[in-house]
Amino acid sequence: xxxxxxxxxxxxxxxxxxxxxxxxxxxxxxxxxxxxxxxxxxxxxxxxxxxxxxxxxxxxxxxxxxxxxxxxxxxxxxxxxxxxxxxxxxxxxxxxxxxxxxxxxxxxxxxxxxxxxx
Length: 118
Known about the structure:
This protein has helices at residues 3-11, 54-63, 89-105, 109-116; strands at residues 16-19, 26-31, 34-40, 47-51, 67-69, 78-82. The chain is built from four helices and six strands, in the order αββββαββαα. The longest helix is centred in the C-terminal third of the chain and has 17 residues, at 89-105.
């Protein structure tokens, strides 16, 4: 997957918007205003930062050397995923969907209802 493939997949998820709040080198993807993914566009390697629950993050880091803690977030549960040939497109999409679902599950009832009505 390349940047455009990552972006397209994310934008096809319900209620997702994109912005450049940090600078023109970081694409932020949000659902109902809550960030679930960040793609650093100035990085020579294609990568994406995603939310992940702590247990799953540890498991993924043990299984794949392409997954590392994100250095650009002070918040816990964020992980950088370098997209390389060892990670299938299906698995990459599963990681993105996990991050999206994690953020959606934490939305207020009102925001979830708004999302359902889109």
